[in-house]
Write a structure and sequence with these properties.
Layout (H helix, E strand, L loop, with lengths): L1 E8 L5 H4 L3 H14 L2 E6 L6 E6 L3 H9 L2 H4 L3 E8 L16
Antiparallel strand pairs: 1-3, 1-4, 2-3
Length: 100
């Protein structure tokens, strides 16, 4: 199952607290990408943070994977999670009234 994880900085956390962990965070993210848990990683243009698409069995596994990230372990960031389901509304295009 694909799961969307949006990072959020915890209240009171400064850039100065995050910066020393940036290299370790990037290395951990790359390791998770290489082993298959991370499908894709993106920076968010409208706010600080990242968006990660994970491939996990369920939300609990996604939370466990993300709990190992250095900034999460340090109590500086957390993630909001959402399951990504297939968009099935396209099926409406194939109802009889849409067929020519």
């Amino acid at each position: 199952m694909q799961i969307l994880a949006l990072s959020r900085r915890l209240p009171g956390v400064s850039d100065a607290q995050l910066t020393p962990l940036a290299t370790a965070a990037a290395a951990a993210a790359f390791a998770l990408y290489a082993e298959g848990s991370f499908r894709s990683m993106h920076l968010l243009p409208d706010r600080p943070g990242a968006m990660v698409v994970l491939e996990c069995a369920d939300l609990d596994q996604a939370r466990q994977v993300m709990a190992g990230l250095p900034m999460v372990k340090a109590g500086l960031i957390d993630f909001d999670y959402s399951r990504m389901l297939p968009y099935t509304e396209v099926a409406s295009l194939f109802r009889d009234e849409f067929k020519a």
